[in-house]
Amino acid sequence: MREVSVEEARRIAVGAQLLDGSAATVLDTVRRLGFLQLDPISSVAPPQQLVLWSRIGPFDAAQLDRLLWEERKLVEWNAFLYPIEVLPLLKAFMRRNDRPIDARRRAYLRANSAFSRYVLRELRERGPLLSREIETHSSRAGRERSDWWGVRQMGLMLEVLAEVGKVAVVGRRGKQRVWDLAGRWYPETETVPLKKALAIYEDQRFRAIGVRLERGRLVAHPQMVDSTVDDPVPDRTTFLSPFDRLVHDRNRTEALWDFYYRLEMYVPAVKREYGYYVLPILHGDRLVGRIEPVYDRHGQGRRVGRGRRAPPDRRAGDGTF
């Protein structure tokens, strides 16, 4: 790793994330980024689609479905989409049992073993199925609401079974996930030890973001230093999802651009500074402002609620957009 200047770090970060206009196809972009985060909130568009749009421009959103469910070159796990080549690492993560959350999942499955066996049997004999197509198991009758899973008992069981590699998301009907046994969906892969999987995954993530903030220093991935540090970034303008990895690390975002960014959707309306779902504006290698797309319920489609420029400073340029 090499420490880099703020100016170098901006160029590396934008280039590493393919926000410099170099993105080509949906599949190649996902492979380069490493994953796409899923989230049900779609004030503008689902995050996975908005992240791709920021890099590729307009594209056929059905491509993601084809890559996932027909060509199976992508895989969904734990609310993320990954290239299928990463599956050996994901399987190592499914097997892990070295964190408190892992122990909690295993304890939940042990405490609800009859319920988990029932769900697996239903999928084996009748799957693929939506969660609502599996009747509530008799052991759940009369159960009180739990602080952990609330009343979503079937949904939680399926999610926990997926996290430990027993079931998998194999399709969607509308916004509803379709479930089946993991062994019928995931292809056979090599077995990778957890320590090796974590090392590979961490290196891939570091390369995908290009630069990280460590103890106040900006350090770059060696491959990205060699390939992008001196390349000028084209004057390309785009909007970023709140889940975009360029701004996901809020501390790094401030270190690189002096750009304070928070998602205010969970902030009471009267306390919001910028808006409910505000997108950062990227121009070249600078974050120059914010924009709030708003859905007009009176039939006018999308419109801009508010747009604000970044304050002028040596990092954010002159603040115009």
Written overview of the protein:
The chain has helices spanning 6-16, 26-33, 47-56, 62-70, 87-95, 100-111, 113-126, 153-163, 182-185, 194-209, 222-228, 245-248, 250-257; strands at 2-3, 36-37, 74-77, 80-83, 129-130, 167-173, 176-181, 211-214, 217-220, 237-239, 279-283, 286-296, 301-309. By secondary structure, it is α+β, with helices and mostly antiparallel strands. Strand 12 and strand 13 (301-309) form a beta hairpin. The chain is 38% helix and 20% strand. The protein contains 13 helices and 13 strands. The strands form 4 sheets. It has a 4-stranded antiparallel β-sheet with strand order 10-11-12-13, with no helix packed on it. The protein has a 3-stranded antiparallel β-sheet with strand order 1-9-8. A 3-stranded antiparallel β-sheet has the order 2-4-3. The protein is globular, with a radius of gyration of 22 Å. Helix 5 (87-95) crosses helix 10 (194-209) and helix 6 (100-111) packs across helix 7. The chain starts with a strand and ends in a 12-residue tail after the last strand.
